[in-house]
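Can't paste images in this forum, so I'm doing it all in text. The chain is below; anyone willing to post the predicted structure tokens underneath?
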Amino acid sequence: MAQGGPLLPHAEVARPRSEGPLKVQWLACQAAGQPELRASLTLQGSGPLYYRVVNLDTNDAAHTLLQAGQNAPQVRGLFARYVTQGQLLGRVTLAGLLGTWKLFGLKFDWQGATYRCQMGDG
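Text version of the structure:
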């Protein structure tokens, strides 16, 4: 899984940026025999304790996964709150979620395949 690659064609959300620091997180996930899932999340600092999602871009495979995830009430609620509506996301909350996922190996199962992921800044 490489950091670089083609531009991500699906803008799941794009909202105007204001003054303040930006943090970009990328995610790439691969399962044997399946297309790679790629996403880029741009967060804008909103004071010392919060971020706001300003961009979420995905490739075709990740877009399909997000669409399928909308059928799960928990995913639908979180996506609506933080991505669609742009509500503030606590920095500690985000760090806790990502830290827990890292602890469990940065993987998930979907459509009978286990995806292993890498993520990073930039």
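The CA atoms of residues 47 and 86 lie 15 Å apart. The chain is about 30% helix and 40% strand.
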